[in-house]
Design brief:
Blueprint lengths: L3 H24 L31 H9 L4 E3 L1 H7 L12 E5 L8 E5 L8 E4 L2 E4 L1 H9 L12 H14 L14 H12 L6
Parallel strand pairs: 2-3
Antiparallel strand pairs: 1-2, 4-5
Helix pairs in contact: 3-4, 5-6
Amino acid sequence: MRNKNNFQNIGRPWYNNYCSVIGLLHSIGLNLACIGKIDKNIKVVDKLKSTSRGEFLTSRAWFRATIGDDDLILRHTSALECLELFVGYVNENSIDVYAKTAGKISNINYHVADTFDGMEIVRIGGLSCTSANQTFNDMLSMYGTPKENTIDEQSLVEALSGYYFSNGGSFSGLSIKPENMGRFDILKEWSVEYYNDN
């Protein structure tokens, strides 16, 4: 018959694995209630700040941990990642958002907007981001201008390509603003050929 001390020593590795799994699930945004006694050395972090994408399995988990429920709207490349039109970068550490006021998190680029009225915003998994139409138009409006260095050309082209192929080889579902059509025409041929091996 095992004594109590032997049982605790055998059970401890299981407990450590259990806590690792709970920590992993928490990091990908699942809300779990842990029933039972928790080791006093384990700390639950409500919101991680100034983190990098490499610490999480998905971009959405990273966004949830970093911006949480703040009144922020993901924009540009961050919105494309949330919409799953762009896979993102493994060691990425910068998040682009629309905000009513600038915040204090060092790895968030706050684009202050007086109002969110008139923006196409979608809600996905507890996160707010600009719609595909809004995001493409926002990025296209800067493409080929002095502000171009503030957009990620690769994410824009890859996302347009992803949209094209997931929409049956068509851009017909997009509403590109007339002032952005010239820039869109430049990028659409490139995006159609993006995954071509030739």
